[in-house]
Design a protein that fits this description.
Elements: H1 6-12, H2 15-22, H3 27-48, H4 54-57
């Protein structure tokens, strides 16, 4: 039985498929970072304001 390696699979892809798989985008990372930072800051503000049940808000922050 012959083994299939990554070079064989890559060679079998069309140029369009290869381009789609290797494209690099910044947008998903920037969106994820912005959402994460917003949640951390938002929860921090609520904790600092000591709203009712504020200790529960510390759980997602890992504290």
């Amino acid at each position: 039985m012959s083994e299939i390696d990554h070079r064989t699979i890559i060679a079998s892809l069309s140029a369009e498929d290869r381009r789609d798989l290797t494209v690099k985008l910044d947008r998903p990372g920037i969106v994820r970072l912005t959402v994460h930072g917003g949640l951390v800051v938002g929860l921090g503000v609520l904790i600092a304001a000591r709203i009712p049940f504020w200790p529960v808000l510390m759980l997602p922050l890992g504290s």
